Amino acid sequence: MLFCQLGQAQSLREIYEGLQTSEGKLVHLGMEKAPRHSTLAYANQHRPWEIYRDLFTALLTHLRARLPVSAKTPLELPKGKLYSLDSTLIDLCAKVFDWAKYRTAKGAVKIHLLLDHDGLLPEFAVITDGKAADIGVARKFSFLKGSMVVFDRGYCDYDWFAGLREKGVHFVTRLKDNASWVSVESRPVPADSNVRQDDIAAFTQHDSEDNKRFFRRVVWWDEKGKREYAFLTNHLDLDATVVAAVYKQRWQIELLFKALKQNLPIKTFVGTSANALKIQIWTALIALLLVRYLQLRSRLQLHLSRFVALLRHQLFVYRDLWRFLDEPFEGPLPLRDDYIPPQPNLFSESDVGQHNNSITGADSQPQPKTGNGTDASALLSTALTTVLS
């Protein structure tokens, strides 16, 4: 399935035939021969997709411990990690994927993803049907105490916001335009910044006498877009400009979804069952995790799409991986002086010279060509015809 993702195979038969053409190199992967497409179909139907989820989790733990220092998020927070939470919809044909109910004539599944901004690695994912509400899945996520989570207005739930505060988890989101709030305290704003307003706010319709819920509302002026943004956070001590910068980092998860759909087969599936679809999505996340880690280890700052394309052409090429990451366009090493080819060269000068001598004779004069005779050009022509056929 990794070959399906990195090689961009569109069907089980294409996976089988692609691997079959490289059977000599599959031995180094512990495979004697390529599995047939019927074997792949059976595995997609009966092998639990949870295996791939657990593999993703184990691989993430292994790679996170080996991230370079440069992979850390450039945004400085007082403490804790920065996460982004969002979801993306994958459209499906309702007639083929009849189990993925979404609309009358349209099926869909939804990927709920948590992004770790240290290295921009996917932290975890939940795959649901297209009708599942984002906030319903978000309540099942657990975050480390002291971490910061950023999400859009689709996750607006004041009870959930209060629960995050009780657990010591900070968040930044957009405030809905129709939100009913009152200002409890108005804080001064720097004169030379784009911060227009900084208030301690309370949502009276969600408060009770014994449970006052206070949040912070920051209004930011976007000079480029010429519009205001109202942010909501439960971090009362964070600088107002940092609050706006944190929400701006949420765009990274949108870029991740774009890279996932553009560079990996995540919209064309090789199986139609729910199990096969989840297997392909989890293997896509595993492939994205590997590619992103290799991209971080590379000295070159290549775009993810270019990096995936380079890897796709080198899947079964014997090269030093770490050297390839830094010098992907480096030519092969020169041959040694005492190198002996494993088989005779069709165009070697010695062979052609010996053949010419046998034709021309001892006096090195050209002989007239007879009906059964031949010359060097005819020999090469016959040999090329044999090779090409």
Strand content: 15-25%
Report the radius of gyration as a whole number of Å. 31 Å
Counting DSSP E segments of at least 2 residues, the number of strands comes to 10
Look at the helices and sheets and give the structural class: alpha+beta
Instruction: Estimate the global geometry from the Cα principal axes.
Output: globular
Query: Distance N terminus to C terminus?
Result: 34 Å
Q: Name the average pLDDT.
A: 81
State the helical fraction: 25-40%
Number of discrete helical segments: 14
Q: Would you identify the regions where 5 or more consecutive residues have pLDDT less than 50?
A: 359-389
What composes the largest sheet?
10 strands, mixed
Order of helices and strands: HHHHHEEEEHEHEEEEEHHHHHHH
Describe the structure.
- The protein has 389 residues and is an alpha+beta fold.
- It is built from 14 helices and ten strands.
- Strands 1, 2, 3, 4, 5, 6, 7, 8, 9 and 10 form a ten-stranded mixed beta sheet that branches.
- Strand 3 and strand 4 form a beta hairpin.
- It is globular and about 85 Å long.
- The C terminus is likely disordered.
Structure keywords:
single chain, 389 residues, alpha+beta, 10-stranded mixed beta sheet, 37% helix
Write the layout of secondary structure elements.
Elements lengths: L1 H5 L5 H9 L2 H4 L10 H10 L3 H15 L17 E11 L8 E3 L2 E11 L4 E9 L4 H5 L9 E3 L7 H9 L3 E5 L7 E5 L8 E8 L11 E9 L4 E7 L6 H9 L2 H13 L10 H24 L6 H9 L8 H6 L22 H12 L15 H13 L1
Parallel strand pairs: 1-5, 5-6
Antiparallel strand pairs: 1-3, 2-3, 3-4, 6-10, 7-8, 8-9, 9-10
Helix pairs in contact: 2-4, 4-10, 5-10
